[in-house]
Amino acid sequence: MNSDPRHLVSHSDIRELRGPLMVLGDTAGVGWDEFATVEVRGGSERHGLVLEVDGDETVLQVLEGTEGMRLGGISVRFQGRPLHIPVGPQWLGRVCNGRGEPLDGGPPVTSETVEPVSGWPLNPVYRVPPQEAVITGVSAIDALTTLVRGQKLPIFSVPGLPHLTLATQIAAQSTTQGRNFRVVFAAMGMTHADIAFIRDRLEERSAAGELVLLLNAADDPVIERILTPRIALSIAENLAYEEGSDVLVVMSDMTSYAEAVREVSAARKEIPARRGYPGYLYSDLATLYERCGRVQGRDGSVTVVPVLTMPSGDMTHPVPDLTGYITEGQVVLAPDVDARGIYPPVDVLSSLSRLMRSGAGKGRTREDHLDVAAQVLAAMARARQAAELAELVGQAALGEADRAYIEFRSVVEGKLLNQGREEYRSLEDTLALAWKALAVLPRRELSMLSPEFLDRYLPGPAGGEQL
With DSSP H G I counted as helix, E B as strand and the rest as coil, what are the percentages for the chain, rounded to 5? Predict the structure, then answer.
Protein backbone atom coordinates (compact mmCIF):
# COMPACT_ATOMS: atom_id res chain seq x y z
CA MET A 1 0.00 0.00 0.00
CA ASN A 2 1.37 3.41 -0.99
CA SER A 3 1.64 5.64 2.09
CA ASP A 4 2.36 8.80 0.06
CA PRO A 5 -0.69 11.10 0.50
CA ARG A 6 -0.26 12.51 -3.00
CA HIS A 7 -1.99 9.46 -4.51
CA LEU A 8 -5.20 10.78 -2.92
CA VAL A 9 -4.90 14.22 -4.57
CA SER A 10 -6.47 14.70 -7.99
CA HIS A 11 -4.97 17.19 -10.44
CA SER A 12 -7.36 18.57 -13.05
CA ASP A 13 -5.38 21.48 -14.56
CA ILE A 14 -4.95 19.78 -17.96
CA ARG A 15 -3.37 22.32 -20.29
CA GLU A 16 -2.71 20.31 -23.45
CA LEU A 17 -3.21 16.92 -25.09
CA ARG A 18 -0.49 16.25 -27.66
CA GLY A 19 -0.38 12.82 -29.28
CA PRO A 20 0.28 10.32 -26.47
CA LEU A 21 1.27 13.17 -24.11
CA MET A 22 -0.68 15.19 -21.56
CA VAL A 23 0.56 18.49 -20.13
CA LEU A 24 -0.59 19.33 -16.59
CA GLY A 25 -0.17 22.46 -14.53
CA ASP A 26 -0.07 23.10 -10.78
CA THR A 27 1.82 19.86 -10.04
CA ALA A 28 4.51 21.00 -7.61
CA GLY A 29 6.35 18.13 -5.94
CA VAL A 30 5.85 15.60 -8.74
CA GLY A 31 9.01 13.68 -9.72
CA TRP A 32 10.40 12.36 -12.99
CA ASP A 33 9.26 8.83 -14.00
CA GLU A 34 6.49 8.92 -11.41
CA PHE A 35 3.51 6.69 -12.10
CA ALA A 36 0.04 8.21 -12.34
CA THR A 37 -3.58 7.14 -12.67
CA VAL A 38 -5.72 9.07 -15.17
CA GLU A 39 -9.47 9.13 -14.59
CA VAL A 40 -11.61 10.11 -17.57
CA ARG A 41 -15.23 11.10 -17.09
CA GLY A 42 -17.42 8.53 -18.81
CA GLY A 43 -14.44 6.38 -19.76
CA SER A 44 -12.17 3.72 -18.38
CA GLU A 45 -9.21 4.46 -16.15
CA ARG A 46 -5.86 5.01 -17.85
CA HIS A 47 -2.28 5.18 -16.63
CA GLY A 48 0.71 7.39 -17.23
CA LEU A 49 4.37 8.08 -16.51
CA VAL A 50 6.00 11.46 -15.93
CA LEU A 51 8.35 12.31 -18.80
CA GLU A 52 9.32 15.85 -17.89
CA VAL A 53 8.96 18.31 -15.01
CA ASP A 54 9.40 22.05 -15.57
CA GLY A 55 8.49 24.17 -12.56
CA ASP A 56 4.89 23.37 -11.71
CA GLU A 57 4.21 21.96 -15.18
CA THR A 58 4.43 18.22 -15.86
CA VAL A 59 4.44 16.25 -19.11
CA LEU A 60 2.78 12.86 -18.71
CA GLN A 61 2.91 10.01 -21.23
CA VAL A 62 -0.44 8.18 -21.22
CA LEU A 63 0.14 4.45 -21.66
CA GLU A 64 -3.19 3.79 -23.33
CA GLY A 65 -2.97 6.95 -25.45
CA THR A 66 -5.06 10.11 -25.33
CA GLU A 67 -7.56 9.18 -28.06
CA GLY A 68 -11.10 10.17 -27.09
CA MET A 69 -9.94 12.44 -24.25
CA ARG A 70 -10.92 16.11 -23.93
CA LEU A 71 -9.46 18.81 -21.71
CA GLY A 72 -12.49 18.81 -19.43
CA GLY A 73 -13.42 15.87 -17.21
CA ILE A 74 -9.92 14.52 -16.62
CA SER A 75 -8.27 14.08 -13.24
CA VAL A 76 -4.80 12.71 -12.51
CA ARG A 77 -3.53 11.13 -9.29
CA PHE A 78 0.23 10.66 -8.84
CA GLN A 79 1.47 7.61 -6.96
CA GLY A 80 4.70 9.03 -5.53
CA ARG A 81 6.90 6.31 -7.09
CA PRO A 82 7.84 4.91 -10.52
CA LEU A 83 5.79 2.21 -12.22
CA HIS A 84 6.19 -1.10 -10.39
CA ILE A 85 5.09 -4.58 -11.47
CA PRO A 86 4.67 -7.81 -9.50
CA VAL A 87 7.56 -10.20 -10.14
CA GLY A 88 8.18 -13.86 -9.47
CA PRO A 89 7.63 -17.34 -10.95
CA GLN A 90 3.91 -16.58 -11.27
CA TRP A 91 4.73 -15.09 -14.69
CA LEU A 92 5.89 -18.42 -16.10
CA GLY A 93 3.45 -19.91 -18.57
CA ARG A 94 1.53 -16.65 -18.95
CA VAL A 95 0.69 -14.77 -22.16
CA CYS A 96 0.23 -11.02 -21.66
CA ASN A 97 0.11 -7.82 -23.66
CA GLY A 98 2.91 -5.29 -23.68
CA ARG A 99 1.76 -3.83 -20.33
CA GLY A 100 1.64 -7.22 -18.62
CA GLU A 101 -2.15 -7.61 -18.76
CA PRO A 102 -3.29 -11.21 -19.43
CA LEU A 103 -4.23 -12.31 -22.95
CA ASP A 104 -4.60 -15.99 -22.02
CA GLY A 105 -7.88 -15.69 -20.14
CA GLY A 106 -6.20 -16.11 -16.76
CA PRO A 107 -6.28 -13.75 -13.77
CA PRO A 108 -3.86 -10.82 -13.50
CA VAL A 109 -0.39 -11.76 -12.30
CA THR A 110 -0.01 -10.94 -8.61
CA SER A 111 2.86 -11.23 -6.17
CA GLU A 112 3.95 -9.90 -2.81
CA THR A 113 7.17 -8.73 -4.46
CA VAL A 114 7.07 -5.73 -6.77
CA GLU A 115 9.94 -4.09 -8.68
CA PRO A 116 10.27 -0.91 -10.77
CA VAL A 117 10.15 -1.55 -14.52
CA SER A 118 13.26 0.60 -15.00
CA GLY A 119 15.27 -1.79 -12.80
CA TRP A 120 17.85 -0.96 -10.16
CA PRO A 121 21.36 0.38 -10.86
CA LEU A 122 23.93 -2.40 -10.60
CA ASN A 123 27.36 -1.69 -9.16
CA PRO A 124 29.84 -2.78 -11.90
CA VAL A 125 32.11 -4.19 -9.18
CA TYR A 126 29.56 -6.95 -8.59
CA ARG A 127 29.29 -7.94 -12.26
CA VAL A 128 30.79 -11.31 -13.17
CA PRO A 129 32.10 -11.82 -16.73
CA PRO A 130 29.80 -13.90 -18.95
CA GLN A 131 30.84 -17.52 -19.36
CA GLU A 132 29.47 -20.93 -20.36
CA ALA A 133 27.58 -21.47 -23.58
CA VAL A 134 23.86 -21.14 -24.19
CA ILE A 135 23.09 -23.91 -26.69
CA THR A 136 20.43 -22.66 -29.10
CA GLY A 137 20.18 -25.80 -31.23
CA VAL A 138 20.90 -23.63 -34.29
CA SER A 139 24.17 -24.75 -35.88
CA ALA A 140 25.08 -21.38 -37.42
CA ILE A 141 25.04 -19.80 -33.97
CA ASP A 142 26.33 -22.63 -31.81
CA ALA A 143 29.28 -23.45 -34.07
CA LEU A 144 30.50 -20.05 -35.23
CA THR A 145 28.97 -17.28 -33.07
CA THR A 146 28.38 -19.03 -29.76
CA LEU A 147 25.96 -17.30 -27.39
CA VAL A 148 27.36 -17.04 -23.87
CA ARG A 149 25.44 -17.00 -20.58
CA GLY A 150 25.16 -13.33 -19.55
CA GLN A 151 25.91 -11.94 -23.03
CA LYS A 152 23.95 -9.51 -25.22
CA LEU A 153 24.09 -10.73 -28.82
CA PRO A 154 21.77 -9.03 -31.35
CA ILE A 155 20.39 -10.41 -34.60
CA PHE A 156 20.64 -7.90 -37.47
CA SER A 157 18.17 -8.55 -40.27
CA VAL A 158 16.39 -6.98 -43.23
CA PRO A 159 12.61 -6.73 -43.68
CA GLY A 160 11.36 -9.84 -45.44
CA LEU A 161 13.92 -12.24 -43.96
CA PRO A 162 12.87 -14.96 -41.46
CA HIS A 163 14.30 -13.23 -38.38
CA LEU A 164 11.11 -13.78 -36.38
CA THR A 165 11.21 -17.48 -37.22
CA LEU A 166 14.82 -17.63 -36.02
CA ALA A 167 13.99 -15.67 -32.85
CA THR A 168 11.16 -18.03 -31.93
CA GLN A 169 13.33 -21.06 -32.74
CA ILE A 170 16.03 -19.78 -30.37
CA ALA A 171 13.40 -19.10 -27.70
CA ALA A 172 11.87 -22.57 -28.14
CA GLN A 173 15.10 -24.59 -28.15
CA SER A 174 17.78 -22.83 -26.06
CA THR A 175 19.22 -24.45 -22.95
CA THR A 176 22.20 -24.23 -20.63
CA GLN A 177 23.76 -27.51 -19.63
CA GLY A 178 22.34 -28.92 -16.41
CA ARG A 179 20.78 -25.62 -15.30
CA ASN A 180 17.32 -24.21 -14.65
CA PHE A 181 16.50 -22.35 -17.88
CA ARG A 182 13.73 -19.83 -18.54
CA VAL A 183 12.78 -17.61 -21.51
CA VAL A 184 11.09 -14.21 -21.63
CA PHE A 185 9.93 -13.22 -25.13
CA ALA A 186 9.08 -9.54 -25.67
CA ALA A 187 7.40 -8.84 -29.01
CA MET A 188 7.06 -5.20 -30.06
CA GLY A 189 5.06 -3.71 -32.93
CA MET A 190 3.95 -7.10 -34.27
CA THR A 191 1.08 -7.79 -36.67
CA HIS A 192 -1.66 -10.02 -35.34
CA ALA A 193 -0.54 -12.75 -37.75
CA ASP A 194 2.97 -12.59 -36.28
CA ILE A 195 1.56 -12.72 -32.74
CA ALA A 196 -0.46 -15.82 -33.63
CA PHE A 197 2.71 -17.40 -35.07
CA ILE A 198 4.71 -16.62 -31.92
CA ARG A 199 2.05 -18.06 -29.62
CA ASP A 200 1.73 -21.21 -31.71
CA ARG A 201 5.50 -21.74 -32.06
CA LEU A 202 6.19 -21.24 -28.35
CA GLU A 203 3.11 -23.00 -27.04
CA GLU A 204 5.01 -26.10 -25.93
CA ARG A 205 7.57 -24.19 -23.87
CA SER A 206 4.84 -21.98 -22.42
CA ALA A 207 2.77 -25.01 -21.40
CA ALA A 208 5.86 -26.43 -19.69
CA GLY A 209 6.03 -23.34 -17.45
CA GLU A 210 9.37 -22.20 -18.87
CA LEU A 211 8.26 -19.14 -20.85
CA VAL A 212 6.81 -15.65 -20.36
CA LEU A 213 5.22 -13.99 -23.40
CA LEU A 214 4.71 -10.23 -23.64
CA LEU A 215 3.04 -9.33 -26.92
CA ASN A 216 2.70 -5.73 -28.13
CA ALA A 217 0.72 -5.42 -31.35
CA ALA A 218 1.35 -2.77 -34.00
CA ASP A 219 -2.06 -1.22 -33.29
CA ASP A 220 -1.50 -1.04 -29.53
CA PRO A 221 -0.59 2.35 -28.01
CA VAL A 222 2.93 3.41 -28.92
CA ILE A 223 3.83 4.11 -25.29
CA GLU A 224 3.15 0.48 -24.43
CA ARG A 225 5.93 -0.47 -26.84
CA ILE A 226 8.42 1.51 -24.77
CA LEU A 227 7.37 -0.32 -21.60
CA THR A 228 7.34 -3.86 -23.01
CA PRO A 229 11.10 -4.59 -22.95
CA ARG A 230 11.47 -2.96 -19.54
CA ILE A 231 8.74 -5.13 -18.05
CA ALA A 232 10.33 -8.19 -19.67
CA LEU A 233 13.74 -7.39 -18.19
CA SER A 234 12.30 -6.75 -14.71
CA ILE A 235 10.63 -10.17 -14.80
CA ALA A 236 13.87 -11.75 -16.05
CA GLU A 237 16.03 -10.11 -13.39
CA ASN A 238 13.85 -11.51 -10.62
CA LEU A 239 13.81 -15.01 -12.14
CA ALA A 240 17.60 -14.87 -12.53
CA TYR A 241 18.89 -13.21 -9.39
CA GLU A 242 16.20 -14.24 -6.90
CA GLU A 243 15.03 -17.60 -8.30
CA GLY A 244 18.45 -18.72 -9.57
CA SER A 245 17.44 -19.39 -13.19
CA ASP A 246 19.35 -18.76 -16.38
CA VAL A 247 17.01 -16.46 -18.30
CA LEU A 248 17.11 -15.72 -22.02
CA VAL A 249 15.33 -12.50 -23.03
CA VAL A 250 14.45 -12.29 -26.72
CA MET A 251 13.32 -8.82 -27.80
CA SER A 252 11.88 -8.34 -31.30
CA ASP A 253 11.75 -5.92 -33.03
CA MET A 254 14.02 -3.26 -31.50
CA THR A 255 13.58 -1.07 -34.59
CA SER A 256 9.85 -0.82 -33.72
CA TYR A 257 10.87 0.12 -30.18
CA ALA A 258 13.23 2.85 -31.45
CA GLU A 259 10.51 4.22 -33.71
CA ALA A 260 8.23 4.49 -30.67
CA VAL A 261 10.97 6.44 -28.86
CA ARG A 262 11.25 8.72 -31.90
CA GLU A 263 7.49 9.28 -31.99
CA VAL A 264 7.35 10.27 -28.33
CA SER A 265 10.38 12.52 -28.80
CA ALA A 266 8.64 14.29 -31.69
CA ALA A 267 5.51 14.76 -29.57
CA ARG A 268 7.71 16.39 -26.92
CA LYS A 269 9.05 18.73 -29.64
CA GLU A 270 12.64 17.74 -28.93
CA ILE A 271 15.38 18.64 -31.37
CA PRO A 272 16.00 15.53 -33.50
CA ALA A 273 19.39 14.01 -34.23
CA ARG A 274 20.24 11.44 -36.92
CA ARG A 275 17.25 10.40 -39.05
CA GLY A 276 14.84 12.07 -36.65
CA TYR A 277 15.78 9.90 -33.67
CA PRO A 278 16.47 11.73 -30.39
CA GLY A 279 20.07 12.36 -29.39
CA TYR A 280 19.64 10.16 -26.30
CA LEU A 281 18.78 7.00 -28.30
CA TYR A 282 22.18 5.50 -27.45
CA SER A 283 21.71 5.86 -23.69
CA ASP A 284 18.08 4.73 -23.99
CA LEU A 285 19.10 1.49 -25.73
CA ALA A 286 21.91 1.03 -23.20
CA THR A 287 19.39 1.10 -20.32
CA LEU A 288 17.91 -2.05 -21.87
CA TYR A 289 20.90 -3.97 -23.17
CA GLU A 290 23.04 -3.41 -20.08
CA ARG A 291 20.51 -5.12 -17.82
CA CYS A 292 21.90 -8.49 -18.85
CA GLY A 293 24.77 -10.30 -17.19
CA ARG A 294 25.77 -12.30 -14.13
CA VAL A 295 26.02 -10.99 -10.57
CA GLN A 296 28.52 -11.99 -7.91
CA GLY A 297 26.98 -14.29 -5.32
CA ARG A 298 23.89 -15.11 -7.43
CA ASP A 299 23.44 -18.32 -9.42
CA GLY A 300 21.28 -17.01 -12.26
CA SER A 301 22.02 -14.96 -15.33
CA VAL A 302 20.24 -12.76 -17.86
CA THR A 303 21.17 -13.23 -21.53
CA VAL A 304 19.70 -10.81 -24.06
CA VAL A 305 19.09 -11.46 -27.77
CA PRO A 306 17.63 -8.31 -29.38
CA VAL A 307 16.31 -8.68 -32.94
CA LEU A 308 16.27 -5.62 -35.18
CA THR A 309 15.59 -4.93 -38.83
CA MET A 310 17.89 -2.61 -40.75
CA PRO A 311 15.90 -0.36 -43.13
CA SER A 312 17.18 -1.04 -46.67
CA GLY A 313 19.81 -3.31 -45.12
CA ASP A 314 21.74 -0.25 -43.93
CA MET A 315 24.00 -1.24 -41.03
CA THR A 316 24.87 2.45 -40.51
CA HIS A 317 21.23 3.19 -39.64
CA PRO A 318 21.10 4.61 -36.08
CA VAL A 319 19.42 1.58 -34.49
CA PRO A 320 21.87 -1.15 -35.63
CA ASP A 321 24.80 1.29 -35.47
CA LEU A 322 24.19 2.24 -31.84
CA THR A 323 23.26 -1.32 -30.91
CA GLY A 324 26.60 -2.49 -32.25
CA TYR A 325 28.44 -0.09 -29.94
CA ILE A 326 26.69 -1.50 -26.86
CA THR A 327 26.44 -5.22 -27.55
CA GLU A 328 29.09 -7.93 -27.84
CA GLY A 329 28.88 -8.92 -31.49
CA GLN A 330 26.06 -9.61 -33.92
CA VAL A 331 24.42 -12.35 -35.98
CA VAL A 332 23.77 -10.92 -39.44
CA LEU A 333 21.08 -12.30 -41.76
CA ALA A 334 21.71 -11.60 -45.45
CA PRO A 335 19.29 -11.51 -48.43
CA ASP A 336 21.81 -13.17 -50.78
CA VAL A 337 22.14 -16.15 -48.43
CA ASP A 338 18.35 -16.35 -48.14
CA ALA A 339 18.08 -16.26 -51.95
CA ARG A 340 20.12 -19.49 -52.08
CA GLY A 341 17.42 -21.22 -50.02
CA ILE A 342 19.43 -21.43 -46.81
CA TYR A 343 17.75 -21.19 -43.41
CA PRO A 344 18.74 -19.45 -41.25
CA PRO A 345 20.31 -17.09 -43.81
CA VAL A 346 23.30 -16.18 -41.63
CA ASP A 347 26.21 -14.33 -43.23
CA VAL A 348 28.91 -15.99 -41.16
CA LEU A 349 31.68 -13.64 -42.31
CA SER A 350 29.74 -10.59 -41.09
CA SER A 351 28.71 -12.26 -37.83
CA LEU A 352 30.71 -12.29 -34.63
CA SER A 353 30.42 -13.24 -30.97
CA ARG A 354 33.06 -11.30 -29.06
CA LEU A 355 32.59 -13.43 -25.96
CA MET A 356 32.71 -16.79 -27.72
CA ARG A 357 36.05 -17.64 -26.10
CA SER A 358 34.41 -17.21 -22.69
CA GLY A 359 31.77 -19.85 -23.44
CA ALA A 360 33.37 -22.29 -25.85
CA GLY A 361 36.40 -24.56 -25.86
CA LYS A 362 37.91 -27.08 -23.47
CA GLY A 363 35.93 -27.49 -20.25
CA ARG A 364 32.98 -25.52 -21.65
CA THR A 365 31.74 -27.00 -24.94
CA ARG A 366 34.38 -29.20 -26.58
CA GLU A 367 38.15 -28.89 -26.83
CA ASP A 368 38.18 -28.53 -30.63
CA HIS A 369 35.29 -26.05 -30.86
CA LEU A 370 37.23 -22.78 -31.09
CA ASP A 371 39.81 -24.13 -33.53
CA VAL A 372 37.09 -25.65 -35.75
CA ALA A 373 35.18 -22.35 -35.79
CA ALA A 374 38.32 -20.41 -36.70
CA GLN A 375 39.19 -22.85 -39.49
CA VAL A 376 35.66 -22.82 -40.94
CA LEU A 377 35.56 -19.02 -40.98
CA ALA A 378 39.02 -18.74 -42.53
CA ALA A 379 38.07 -21.26 -45.20
CA MET A 380 34.78 -19.44 -45.89
CA ALA A 381 36.72 -16.22 -46.45
CA ARG A 382 39.03 -18.01 -48.88
CA ALA A 383 35.99 -19.59 -50.59
CA ARG A 384 34.44 -16.18 -51.12
CA GLN A 385 37.62 -15.00 -52.84
CA ALA A 386 37.66 -18.14 -54.99
CA ALA A 387 34.03 -17.62 -55.99
CA GLU A 388 34.73 -14.03 -57.00
CA LEU A 389 37.67 -15.21 -59.09
CA ALA A 390 35.51 -17.90 -60.71
CA GLU A 391 33.08 -15.22 -61.85
CA LEU A 392 35.94 -13.56 -63.75
CA VAL A 393 37.81 -16.50 -65.28
CA GLY A 394 35.37 -19.40 -64.94
CA GLN A 395 35.54 -22.25 -62.46
CA ALA A 396 37.33 -24.53 -64.92
CA ALA A 397 40.32 -22.16 -64.92
CA LEU A 398 40.73 -22.36 -61.15
CA GLY A 399 43.32 -24.45 -59.40
CA GLU A 400 42.50 -27.60 -57.48
CA ALA A 401 42.59 -25.85 -54.11
CA ASP A 402 40.27 -23.04 -55.20
CA ARG A 403 37.74 -25.52 -56.59
CA ALA A 404 37.90 -27.39 -53.27
CA TYR A 405 37.14 -24.17 -51.39
CA ILE A 406 34.10 -23.48 -53.59
CA GLU A 407 32.85 -27.01 -52.92
CA PHE A 408 33.56 -26.47 -49.22
CA ARG A 409 31.33 -23.39 -49.15
CA SER A 410 28.51 -25.38 -50.80
CA VAL A 411 28.82 -28.11 -48.16
CA VAL A 412 28.95 -25.61 -45.28
CA GLU A 413 25.88 -23.74 -46.48
CA GLY A 414 23.94 -26.85 -47.51
CA LYS A 415 24.74 -29.08 -44.53
CA LEU A 416 26.13 -27.11 -41.57
CA LEU A 417 24.24 -23.80 -41.82
CA ASN A 418 21.02 -25.00 -43.47
CA GLN A 419 18.58 -26.73 -41.12
CA GLY A 420 14.87 -27.10 -40.51
CA ARG A 421 12.89 -24.29 -38.91
CA GLU A 422 11.94 -26.54 -36.01
CA GLU A 423 15.05 -28.74 -36.05
CA TYR A 424 17.16 -28.94 -32.91
CA ARG A 425 20.80 -29.94 -33.30
CA SER A 426 23.00 -30.89 -30.39
CA LEU A 427 26.45 -29.36 -30.24
CA GLU A 428 27.96 -32.77 -31.02
CA ASP A 429 25.88 -32.99 -34.20
CA THR A 430 26.82 -29.44 -35.18
CA LEU A 431 30.56 -30.01 -34.74
CA ALA A 432 30.34 -33.31 -36.63
CA LEU A 433 28.82 -31.46 -39.59
CA ALA A 434 31.60 -28.86 -39.40
CA TRP A 435 34.26 -31.60 -39.53
CA LYS A 436 32.51 -33.25 -42.50
CA ALA A 437 32.65 -29.93 -44.34
CA LEU A 438 36.35 -29.49 -43.50
CA ALA A 439 37.02 -32.98 -44.90
CA VAL A 440 36.28 -31.56 -48.36
CA LEU A 441 39.50 -29.52 -48.18
CA PRO A 442 43.00 -30.94 -48.62
CA ARG A 443 44.47 -31.71 -45.22
CA ARG A 444 47.40 -29.37 -45.86
CA GLU A 445 44.89 -26.47 -46.00
CA LEU A 446 43.70 -27.12 -42.42
CA SER A 447 46.58 -25.22 -40.87
CA MET A 448 44.56 -23.88 -37.91
CA LEU A 449 43.85 -27.38 -36.56
CA SER A 450 46.37 -29.43 -34.63
CA PRO A 451 47.42 -32.86 -35.94
CA GLU A 452 45.87 -34.34 -32.80
CA PHE A 453 42.45 -32.88 -33.62
CA LEU A 454 42.76 -33.87 -37.28
CA ASP A 455 43.56 -37.46 -36.40
CA ARG A 456 40.73 -37.64 -33.87
CA TYR A 457 37.86 -35.83 -35.58
CA LEU A 458 38.47 -35.48 -39.33
CA PRO A 459 36.39 -38.02 -41.29
CA GLY A 460 38.21 -40.37 -43.63
CA PRO A 461 40.95 -42.97 -43.30
CA ALA A 462 43.57 -42.07 -40.71
CA GLY A 463 41.96 -38.73 -40.06
CA GLY A 464 41.37 -37.57 -43.62
CA GLU A 465 43.05 -38.15 -46.94
CA GLN A 466 46.35 -36.54 -47.81
CA LEU A 467 45.29 -34.58 -50.86
Answer: 40, 25, 40
pLDDT tens sequence across 356-398: 999 999 999 999 999 999 999 999 999 999 999 988 888 878 8
Give the C-alpha separation, 384 to 387, whole Å: 5
Residue among 308, 307, 265, 306 nearest 287 (CA) = 306
Nearest to 359 by CA among 301, 417, 412: 301
C-alpha 250/C-alpha 290 separation (Å) is: 14
Whether 254 and 319 have beta carbons less than 8 Å apart is answered as yes
For strand 301-309 and strand 293-295, is the pairing parallel, antiparallel, or unpaired? antiparallel
- In angstroms, the CA 183 to CA 245 distance is 10
Output the CA torsion sign for 268, 272, 274, 280.
negative
> What is the helix (H) or strand (E) element at residue 336, kind and residue range?
helix 335-339
Give the rounded distance of the alpha carbon of 32 from its chain centre. Answer: 28
In angstroms, rounded to a whole number, what is the distance separating the alpha carbons of residues 249 and 182?
9
Q: Which residues contact 462 (CB under 8 A, 6 or more apart)?
A: 455
DSSP code for 275? G
- At 332, phi and psi to the nearest 5? -105, 125
Q: Are 10 and 75 in contact (CB under 8 A)?
A: yes
Instruction: Please write the tens of the pLDDT for every residue from 95-123.
Output: 999 999 999 999 999 999 999 999 887 88
**Of 359, 334, 108, 97, which Cα lies nearest the Cα of 216?**
97
